[in-house]
Amino acid sequence: xxxxxxxLYLCGVSSHATPRTVKVTMASNQCPFxxxxxxxxxxxxxxxxxxxxxxxxxxxHTLLIPKRHVGSFFELGEDEVS
Length: 82
Description:
Elements: E1 7-10, E2 13-16, E3 41-44, E4 48-52, E5 62-66, H1 78-81
Antiparallel strand pairs: 1-2, 3-4, 4-5
């Protein structure tokens, strides 16, 4: 069985997920996830937004995007991860 890889989108920066942290400085008006049309949003709460993937690899492929700008998944708080 091949290795499982994922792509982590960091406010306009695409990088294969690794344990390292990528620092991104970007105004929220430049972030493609801060300006999503309401029609793309499947669900949301105070911490995250859910959208259908534009290029799904399987039916129902959904992206969960934190509302807080962070450089890495590992910088998210426990409440944002759970």
